[in-house]
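2024-03-11 09:14:02 INFO worker-7 job=invfold-0412 stage=load source=structure_tokens
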């Protein structure tokens, strides 16, 4: 873990609502290195969602600096930001955000359409490889409504992988899933992290945060606490203790 993927210095974000100024972030310093697995926590209004939007280049800070894989995000224009997001970042959302009338394979292919250098054959091969990485290659021709919630989230994770990003950002990735299915998703994230993927995810659930190796807790727009998880949970071990009928989806 030698390369610094995220370098944030004195980051501030203000929103102006009429004559009222909301200080969403109040001077945040944060560094995340290659290969880390980080959970961002905090209650509603703590600043964690604003932080994720800035990390994902969906919003810009009012003050301070954000370097993503060496690029000074604050200096980039709209088109440059779009290219950076597509090349460097993979996104996983709570609501999956799959196109309902396209197959799993076609959903995973979507980020590759923005690169005209990638031909159809390569695009399909990369999408199939990403689905294989999340255990769903045999479901590649299924529509989203033919997949369970956990399987849809796995498709979303495959889509986040297909461009080989330097960073995967996940916003409450288990928020719409039951506890058992959530374990399957966290097992997948842990497997990807063990293979070198850098992952940052937002969660309000302390139990889900324990699957990460580092927790960053926000409060009132500031980092209240940073800590390495001395005894992280391992999803694969928890899943082994479940009755067979409860883990069918993980083996789908």
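2024-03-11 09:14:09 INFO worker-7 stage=emit residues=252
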């Amino acid at each position: 873990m030698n390369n610094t993927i995220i370098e944030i210095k004195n980051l501030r974000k203000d929103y102006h609502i009429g004559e009222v100024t909301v200080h969403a972030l109040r001077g945040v310093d944060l560094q995340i290195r290659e290969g880390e697995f980080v959970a961002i926590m905090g209650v509603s209004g703590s600043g964690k969602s604003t932080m994720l939007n800035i990390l994902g280049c969906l919003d810009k800070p009012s003050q301070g600096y954000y370097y993503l894989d060496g690029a000074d995000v604050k200096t980039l224009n709209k088109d440059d930001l779009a290219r950076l997001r597509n090349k460097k970042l993979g996104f996983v959302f709570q609501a999956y955000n799959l196109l309902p009338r396209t197959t799993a394979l076609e959903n995973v292919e979507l980020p590759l359409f923005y690169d005209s250098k990638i031909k159809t054959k390569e695009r399909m091969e990369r999408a199939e490889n990403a689905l294989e990485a999340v255990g769903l290659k045999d479901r590649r021709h299924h529509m989203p409504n033919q997949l369970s919630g956990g399987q849809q989230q796995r498709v979303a994770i495959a889509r986040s992988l297909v461009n080989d990003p330097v960073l995967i950002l996940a916003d409450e990735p288990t928020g719409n899933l039951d506890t058992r299915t959530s374990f399957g998703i966290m097992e997948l994230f842990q497997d990807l992290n063990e293979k070198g993927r850098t992952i940052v995810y937002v969660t309000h659930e302390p139990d889900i945060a324990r699957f990460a190796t580092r927790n960053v807790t926000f409060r009132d727009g500031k980092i209240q606490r940073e800590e390495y998880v001395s005894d992280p949970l391992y999803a694969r071990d928890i899943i082994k203790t479940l009755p067979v009928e409860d883990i069918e989806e993980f083996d789908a």
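2024-03-11 09:14:09 INFO worker-7 stage=report msg="The chain has eight helices and ten strands."
2024-03-11 09:14:10 INFO worker-7 job finished
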